[in-house]
Design a protein that fits this description.
Blueprint (H helix, E strand, L loop, with lengths): L16 E3 L5 E3 L4 H24 L8 H24 L4 H18 L2 H14 L2 H26 L2 H4 L6
Antiparallel strand pairs: 1-2
Helix pairs in contact: 1-2, 1-3, 2-3, 2-5, 4-5
């Protein structure tokens, strides 16, 4: 079976400009419909993170729920963006899914501001080593999770080649 050609990957799909009905150019990221899609995804992502925080306890002062949310979010974002990029350009349903699930849901689910706050608190209240390990560990494992997610996402097109999305 011949290898499928790799699609050209987008650099930044939000730089695209659409024309309004009045003929005025408007960047895609400023369109009210897309902002609403991101908002809805963010609400559900934040609620999911809160649910995770209620289920996963903080042990020995280490906020494991935030750690898990950031790693799971990094993995899922890698899967989503790679799968969408391999299926084609950032238009229509693919753009809506990227904004709803990637920017919105994963943006609300992950929280690197809480990571920074928690690392600083651990650094000051427990020991500098704990704070550094927590912060650095989250970033290093986050990169690994994203890389693994991208790898998983790269198989989506080949598995579902007959499905148009």
């Amino acid at each position: 079976m011949p290898a499928l050609p790799e699609p050209e990957l987008p650099l930044d799909p939000d730089l695209e400009v659409d024309t309004t009905p009045a003929g005025t150019p408007r960047p895609v990221h400023l369109r009210p419909a897309f902002l609403g899609i991101v908002f809805v995804g963010g609400v559900f992502g934040t609620a999911a993170r809160e649910g995770l925080m209620l289920v996963v306890p903080t042990v020995a002062g280490i906020p494991w729920a935030i750690f898990l949310a950031n790693l799971l979010g990094a993995f899922l974002l890698g899967v989503l963006l790679e799968a969408l990029a391999r299926r084609g350009g950032d238009h229509g349903v693919r753009r809506t899914l990227r904004l709803l699930l990637g920017t919105g849901f994963m943006g609300g689910f992950t929280t690197y501001s809480a990571l920074a706050t928690d690392a600083a608190l651990l650094f000051g209240e427990q020991s500098p080593g704990t704070g550094i390990a927590y912060g650095l560990g989250t970033v290093v494992f986050g990169v690994a999770a994203t890389t693994f997610g991208i790898t998983v996402g790269s198989f989506v097109r080949r598995r579902h080649a007959g499905v148009a999305l």
